[in-house]
Design a protein that fits this description.
Length: about 475
Amino acid sequence: MSSQTEDHRLKVSITHDNNVTEDILCEVYLPKRLTEPVELIFRPTSQQLGQLGLPFEFSIYGEIKDSSGEPRTRINANKVYSKYGSTKQWGQEISESVIIGEPIDLRITMLLRSDKKDEKDTSRGTFWLTHNIMLTPVKCLTTSFTGEVTVNQGHNFSFTLENGTRLKFDHYYRYLKNDKGDMVSFPELVAEFEMDAERNALALSFEPIDDFLMLTSFIARQRCVCLGWEVYSSSEITRFYRRDMTIPKIEKSHSFNDTLIDIRDFEKFTSIAYNNFVKAEERELLRQAVYKSTGRENTTFESNYLRLYSALETLVLIYRKYYDLEFIVKLSEQKAFEKEMKGFIKSCSLFSEEKNKRKLLYEKLPELYRVSFSTAFKEFCKSYNINLNDLWPVVDREDGGINLSDIRNKLIHGDTFSQRQQRALMSAKEHLRWVVERATLSVLGWPYSESKVSQMFLENNMKMYKEWSEDRRILTEND
């Protein structure tokens, strides 16, 4: 339960399974830092609790009215998850109940007293973003001997989304008291925009900015998400708190040395990559591939490796669909093919008396329908002119060594690796990441030779790039 003072206190109605419970006291605790949680604390009476119960998911609506009975603030959320509930009994007739909820889509609208009624009124707003080094504005802070802080504005990156919304990225400085009572300031990344009333819903759609942030996250190797927005007009101020995603952890050590391209190429990259992304026929598949390509190193080795391999498979699947490289045996032919193959297997002298083996072979027949990943992957690399000869092989095993696909299959099937092989596995994962990043850049239309996965950059900067042959031998020797 939050120890801070609530930002709003009001009575709300809670809707759960089409049942509405009215006039429940609610305290609203808003985040002091945008990455902190939003919390609602409900204090139902015993009668209200009996009607409400302890629902896992519900919606709320409430209003704060002025002395004349006019609503001045509206608070609502379509989805609230219950985190905790308890009842303390103080005697036969006195009890105190508390339900703590976490809203996924909290909207707070403050109505302003205004005589201006213009349907074409322009609104200004900001999207609230988590940190991203590529979008960070250039500013110089100067502190004088008097304690006065001067901020000299440098370059601010701007970008226009597919829906026509023009974004300008900036830092807003916020203030709060720390545990010692000292006032501290901190920057938070925002994207400023303007819109008219006719484009309100279109401009505030999350999908366009999510796609843009996805591409900048990939290139920064640092996840950045939109946590909501704030919009000002002459008649109201609306704030929307979004919590339907995992909020990335801020890595303070992350620097321009860790990004996939140099900052000087960022504007050119976003223009090319975003334009190619929005024109993609298989946009949803490409979206999945880029999301999977973006680093999430705070998870296990196995999940990271399988996520990266899945990103590569998704990129190849896009190519398969475009060039009809998914199936050897088409859906309309599969029944006849299966019948003939079963007849052949049954007539084969090796299996004519082996019913159980024949059954196992029958179960493998669907694998013959599809073009192999190896073939599709090689065609994909050839089409996009992706040279991987300097990296750990993905599918080739001509020299008998284990490839990256073999490692993926071992992880999928639960094989274990010795302690000595752990370092070699980390090397394999890095090579897989470089393969995926080269492939993703190529699909987005950016030459990987102008990135930090180029052969020249890896050779000059990455130790695991040079030692993979020995690491591969270590993994192969016990294979």
